[in-house]
């Protein structure tokens, strides 16, 4: 069992049990009832309601110390997140809320105070980094369009269209205040000190979309380079107070999410095209 532990689930499939009374499998769906509750397990109660008398058949009632040890060993990642849930529940329910008149607390801003001090006292460096960041945005855009127009793979482009449309809707729906100490630059994208949505970061999301496409094509070096540049970009955006930390974190998640949605859309459209072609040949 230990050798196959990583492939098992966290519920009834952790261990194969046999009911000693009737020889039917319990919890794995192999018994004569297929592991499902039948009508005999339900009985009418007062007021016409129903209740399940076979609570002892619940999966958790059959867990053993060995099962718990198995989960802790082979499924330690969910265990870590479970501890994180408990920890942040304690933090959330005991934390003092930020007053309405106070600026929001941002951990990323606190960690990048030295960067902010340097850039605020050295405008030329801020302009240079803004220009380099704009070049990086151009690299993202060029790669995404190249994958569609030259290589004929539209998934990354579809993902970017999904992402930027959703970003526009969310950014307009909740217009966050510009962070205090914002260091703008005419060289930053969008060029010209124009207004922009804070939530969420299109810079970060676009880089993630490009990086994921590079990994699909096994362009590992380019993917790692984009990830590294994306990290530097995030540090700069926090240092210039150009985005809140949550904007960047959601940008990463948005890139992954919309890449997945674009993949589902593209695969579904491909299947439909194949079915339409077969149907056309049938009636030809």
TrEMBL record:
Keywords: Membrane, Transmembrane, Transmembrane helix. GO terms for molecular function: diacylglycerol cholinephosphotransferase activity. Residues 1-40 are annotated as: Disordered. It comes from the Eukaryota. Pfam families: AtPDCT1_2. Residues 1-12 have a biased composition (Polar residues). Residues 105-263 form the AtPDCT1/2 transmembrane domain. The keyword Membrane applies. The chain crosses the membrane at residues 71-91, 128-149, 156-174, 194-212. This is Phosphatidylcholine:diacylglycerol cholinephosphotransferase 1-like. It comes from Cucurbita moschata (Winter crookneck squash).
């Amino acid at each position: 069992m230990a050798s196959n532990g990583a492939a098992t689930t966290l519920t009834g499939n952790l261990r194969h049990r046999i009911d000693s009374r009737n020889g039917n499998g319990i919890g794995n769906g192999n018994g004569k009832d297929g592991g499902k509750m039948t009508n005999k397990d339900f009985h009418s109660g007062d007021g016409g309601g129903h209740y399940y008398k076979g609570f002892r058949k619940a999966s958790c009632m059959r867990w053993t110390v060995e099962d718990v040890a198995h989960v802790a060993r082979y499924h330690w990642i969910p265990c870590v997140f479970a501890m994180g849930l408990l920890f942040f529940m304690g933090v959330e329910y005991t934390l003092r809320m930020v007053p309405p008149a106070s600026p929001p607390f941002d951990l990323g801003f606190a960690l990048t105070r030295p960067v902010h001090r340097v850039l605020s006292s050295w405008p030329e460096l801020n302009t240079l980094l803004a220009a380099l960041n704009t070049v990086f945005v151009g690299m993202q855009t060029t790669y995404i369009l190249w994958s569609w127009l030259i290589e004929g793979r539209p998934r990354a482009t579809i993902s970017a269209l999904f992402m930027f449309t959703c970003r526009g809707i969310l950014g307009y729906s909740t217009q966050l205040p510009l962070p205090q100490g914002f260091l703008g630059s005419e060289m930053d994208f969008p060029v010209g000190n124009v207004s922009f949505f804070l939530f969420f970061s299109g810079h970060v999301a676009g880089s993630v979309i490009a990086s994921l496409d590079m990994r699909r094509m096994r362009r590992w070096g380019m993917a790692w380079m984009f990830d590294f540049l994306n990290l530097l970009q995030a540090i700069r955006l926090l240092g210039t107070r150009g985005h809140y930390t949550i904007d960047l974190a959601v940008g990463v998640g948005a890139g992954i999410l919309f890449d997945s949605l674009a993949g589902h859309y593209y695969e579904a459209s491909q299947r439909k095209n194949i079915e339409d072609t077969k149907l056309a040949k049938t009636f030809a």
